[in-house]
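Progress note, sequence design subtask.
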């Protein structure tokens, strides 16, 4: 019997492996679990050089994985003033006005997390900020990340004078006279503006990324599925690894956008498997639609404003061809699909791929509203659901007065974020934050999934309480189901012999706490390859 490099002890260990549940000790060698069992059983793996980490009465679980983040792309999203949950509109105008007064020559006012419900009376327009900002250009990204409000100075700086034709469903809103209102939707339109904004230097971006990853590790995140591989990602990850080990394992999945060429498809395929010590390119990320809040999702029937009825792929059949390219090569896919028709279309495309779809794991992201037959279709096809129920708990209301619910109407709004129905149908349901769209703390994410309301607001009524997850389901969404959704179940997601030794150590048992206490319980440390990150 080979001696372990490290033995870890704790009051309880939730292995999420039926073969080893009830363990209180773990032996680790070369970054892998070599034994899991009782303290007496693991003592046999002790050698003269074996180190011991004894966490007393704490609880150990598999290293938590956030299944949907944008840790590099999000550095651009999360610049400037955070407006998450702030309002009313007058208060936001005051905050932005103060930022404009403090801006130096050539600077923009940048903010993120803006609530679309603030524009119920005015309509989506940036010109309401002109008095507050004067000649300082302003870019306020909406909380969905797919749209923004800009003022007249920003329109001028970006050279936008009217409607613009885009290759996808991006658009620039204009009034009856053809004048831009300052409301811009989807990524091609957003890029038109962000290219005019002064960019941060590489060193500052590296510093911000390092700070972000350390913050994630501090709350128990051991790894994350990064749903992009934007320019600079490899360079930033490489720079941080030159300075030491990454505190969070990163799995990048490059975006495949509408209008992609054959050459671009082949370039993305060639990236697969490249990376560093704790980061890797694996899988791809598609978009089939946008978001319900800004009218760019793909519904079976339009919303009450006649919107949300198109794919971001002008010709959806091109999406099927691009998807098939990766499916046939055994490359995992993840597709952003929010509306019921978008989700159905992606499932049909995967079904049309036949037996090839079993060569890799395939998943759909977000899944905000779906009918019963689509729930059953997930189970039938073995497609995973990667969901962020926190978007529902924070962005919708039980009385259906929010923008998302009003657009959909009662019937479709009642089908929102059907996590429990999918789980009970036997579907793999991975959980995540979509940072920076919502904060990344997994304790709050799990608590919200159990409560179906913001854990920090006990006065708020739950939204669709019947879709609440059990504490175990919520933990599985960040561990075993997260691994399965990415096709990584053989290497992570449970504390099992042979798997990677990534662990999260809670001061108290997350499965025995009330959700409110779960959100507050302390994370003692996160370990990668059996080594504490702090």
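Output:
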């Amino acid at each position: 019997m080979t001696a372990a490099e490290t033995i870890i002890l704790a009051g309880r260990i939730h292995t999420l492996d039926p073969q080893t549940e009830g363990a209180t000790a773990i032996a680790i060698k070369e970054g892998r679990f070599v034994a899991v069992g009782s303290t007496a059983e693991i003592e046999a793996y002790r050698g003269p050089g074996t180190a011991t980490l004894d966490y007393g009465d704490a609880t150990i679980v598999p290293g938590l994985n956030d299944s949907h983040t944008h840790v590099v792309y999000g550095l651009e999203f999360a610049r400037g003033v955070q407006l998450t949950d702030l309002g009313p509109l007058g208060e936001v105008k005051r905050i932005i006005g103060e930022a404009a007064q403090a801006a130096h020559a050539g600077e923009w006012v940048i903010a993120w997390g803006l609530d679309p419900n603030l524009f119920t009376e005015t309509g989506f327009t940036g010109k309401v900020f002109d008095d507050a900002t004067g000649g300082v250009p302003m870019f306020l990204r909406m909380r969905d990340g797919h749209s923004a409000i800009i003022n007249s100075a920003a329109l001028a700086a970006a050279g936008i004078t009217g409607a613009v034709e885009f290759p996808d469903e991006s658009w620039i809103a204009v009034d009856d006279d053809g004048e831009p209102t300052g409301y811009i939707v989807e990524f091609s339109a957003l890029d038109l503006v962000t290219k005019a904004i002064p960019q941060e230097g590489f060193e500052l971006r590296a510093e911000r990324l390092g700070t972000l990853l350390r913050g994630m590790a501090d709350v128990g995140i051991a790894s994350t599925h990064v749903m992009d591989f934007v320019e600079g990602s490899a360079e930033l990850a490489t720079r941080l690894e030159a300075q030491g080990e990454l505190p969070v394992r990163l799995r990048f999945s490059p975006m495949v956008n509408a209008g992609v060429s054959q050459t671009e498809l082949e370039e993305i395929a060639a990236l697969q498997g490249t990376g560093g010590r704790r980061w890797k390119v694996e899988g791809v990320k598609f978009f089939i639609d946008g978001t319900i809040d800004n009218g760019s999702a793909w519904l079976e029937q339009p919303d009450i404003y006649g919107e949300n009825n198109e794919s971001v792929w002008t010709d959806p059949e091109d999406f099927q061809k691009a998807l098939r390219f990766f499916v046939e090569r055994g490359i995992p896919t993840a597709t952003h699909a929010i509306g019921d028709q978008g989700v159905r279309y992606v499932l049909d495309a995967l079904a049309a791929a036949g037996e090839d779809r079993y060569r890799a794991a395939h998943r759909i992201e977000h899944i905000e509203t779906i009918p019963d037959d689509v729930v059953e279709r997930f189970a039938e096809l073995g497609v995973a659901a990667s969901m962020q129920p926190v978007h529902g708990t924070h962005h919708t209301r039980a009385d259906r007065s929010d923008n998302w619910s009003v657009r959909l109407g009662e019937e479709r709004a009642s089908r929102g974020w059907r996590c429990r129905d999918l789980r009970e149908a036997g579907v793999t349901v991975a959980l995540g934050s979509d940072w920076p769209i919502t904060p990344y703390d997994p304790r709050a994410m799990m608590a919200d999934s159990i409560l179906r309301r913001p854990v920090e607001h006990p006065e708020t009524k739950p939204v669709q309480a019947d879709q609440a997850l059990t504490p175990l389901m919520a933990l599985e969404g960040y561990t075993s189901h997260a691994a399965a959704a990415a096709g990584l179940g053989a290497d992570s997601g449970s504390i099992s012999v042979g798997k990677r030794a990534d662990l999260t150590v809670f001061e108290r048992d997350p499965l025995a706490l009330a959700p409110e206490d779960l959100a507050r319980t302390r994370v003692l440390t996160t370990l990668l390859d059996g080594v504490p990150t702090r």
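The mean pLDDT is 95. Work on this subtask will continue into the next period as scheduled.
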